[in-house]
């Protein structure tokens, strides 16, 4: 009995000793990524944001910004996890991948579930006009103030409301069934400008505009009922616990922006300087709706 009691005593003592030791914390996503040199990005395989080329190369506007921001952290390998866009938020929450890199808009609703870096881009609806912008159009209000200028856009789209809000009368709004038809109308002189989301317009000009059409710059972005510019902000999405990773990327993104490198990375994908958000615009402010 004495030996048995002694063994029980020592077993109890060992259990108490191990219980008193602090538990080792699991490595964070950032720590793991730095150790392995790689991360996995969730994407919906959509141009120009994040997609896989026919030769298997992973690229896109958001991917290339992420690549540049990760490099100083020693993270050089990016692997893709392709899914439906609607599955990206639940996917990152379930740790099926590390980052949402699909050019997702930051919205207060999404902020309830996940966290975001500060925005990489801002997406506005903008104008295209004949090369040289002969009518000197720089806002929807310029068109509204003219008695003759006509503007084209697409039937059933949200941007038509902007045209009405700016005070452009219906008899000077020409609505087309498709964006390529609007471009053809502009080139044929049926309208003096067309109004589309920036990236869609950039792709449209590249494929159908030739040297006859250009994006209007500078352009005063239309405002909503609250007086704020109508903009959507794209960012990188994370699990809420990945605050250290978000902070590290925010620092790198701000540096790319300040050095003029961010716009250079984005240009090949149809972005221009006006598509970069002010550094004062943060994810926290967007999430709060301010």
Query: Any idea how many domains?
Result: 2
Radius of gyration equals: 26 Å
The number of E-state strands comes to: 13
Which range best describes the helical content: under 10%, 10-25%, 25-40%, 40-55%, 55-70% or over 70%? 25-40%
Helix and strand run: HHEEEHEHEHEEEHEHEHEHEEHHH
CATH level-3 fold name of the largest domain: D-Maltodextrin-Binding Protein, domain 2
Strand proportion: 15-25%
CATH superfamily of the largest domain: Periplasmic binding protein-like II
The class by helix and strand makeup works out as alpha/beta
The end-to-end span amounts to: 73 Å
Number of helices: 12
List the uncertain runs. none
- Average pLDDT for all residues: 90
Mind telling me which CATH architecture of the largest domain this is? 3-Layer(aba) Sandwich
Describe the biggest sheet? 6 strands, mixed
CATH top level assignment of the largest domain: Alpha Beta
Instruction: Describe the global form.
Output: elongated
